[in-house]
Design brief:
By secondary structure, the chain is mainly α. It has one domain. Helices cover about 80% and strands about 0% of the residues. It contains 7 helices and no strands. It is globular, with a radius of gyration of 17 Å. The model has no long low-confidence stretch (mean pLDDT about 85). Keywords: Membrane, Transmembrane, Transmembrane helix. It comes from Flavobacterium jejuense. This is DUF2306 domain-containing protein.
Length: about 210
């Protein structure tokens, strides 16, 4: 079993590394260009593969970690919803896949918040992280449903950029925490703060266009 876990962790780390490199590459390349699109596809595939493996690892013996499991689900949501946002370039109607993605993440975000508040009351570890990422997920999913109800779907590109950058933030955070071994709260939260500033910058830039 330990050999299987070790192999799974190695594959997870390898795919995560590809996701990190391709994600940074897609940010540096011109938005909408062919290289950007290719890097984006590579990022999406590698991140999905890495996160799916992490979901399995998080339930393996002696590696049980509910928080990492939920963060894995959050990252999968960001990647899938970020790619789904591109479909609104040519459509207006929201379909069942969009609702399922956002609805599922809404449920898990509320779950993270409840676990976080329970942990804060009982002085449990990682409680602040549960609250932070739960709040972040809740905010994003509520914005999704606001977008779905709107008759104007012109902000599809902002949604795409926001979610894909969010997935990249998760990749960078995983590298800092797991790769560099820095597991303090600052290591968990700093990439999110920096990434949020970047998302706000691009949202305003795209809104002007």
């Amino acid at each position: 079993m330990e050999q299987v876990i070790t192999i799974a962790i190695c594959i997870h780390a390898f795919l995560g590394g590809i996701g990190l490199i391709s994600g940074l590459g897609s940010i540096l390349l011109k938005k909408g260009s062919k290289p950007h699109k290719k890097m984006g596809k590579l990022f999406s595939i590698s991140m999905l593969g890495s996160c799916l493996i992490s979901l399995v690892i998080a339930w393996m013996p002696n590696h049980e970690n509910l928080f990492l499991f939920l963060i894995g689900l959050f990252t999968i949501y960001l990647v899938l919803a970020g790619n789904r946002a591109l479909t609104f370039k040519s459509k207006v109607k929201v379909d069942s896949i969009d609702l399922l993605l956002s609805g599922s993440m809404l449920f898990f975000s509320i779950l993270m918040l409840l676990l976080g508040f329970y942990g804060l009351i009982n002085s449990l570890n990682n409680s602040v992280l549960y609250v932070f990422f739960g709040s972040f997920g809740l905010f994003m999913t509520l914005k999704d449903f606001q977008f779905f109800r709107s008759t104007n779907k012109s902000k599809w590109l902002q949604n795409h950029v926001g979610k894909m950058v969010g997935a990249l933030i998760a990749s960078i955070t995983a590298f800092i925490v797991a790769g560099l071994g820095l597991g303090n709260i600052i290591s968990w939260l700093l990439p999110s703060f920096i990434g949020t500033i970047y998302i706000i910058y691009w949202s305003k830039k795209l809104s002007k266009k």
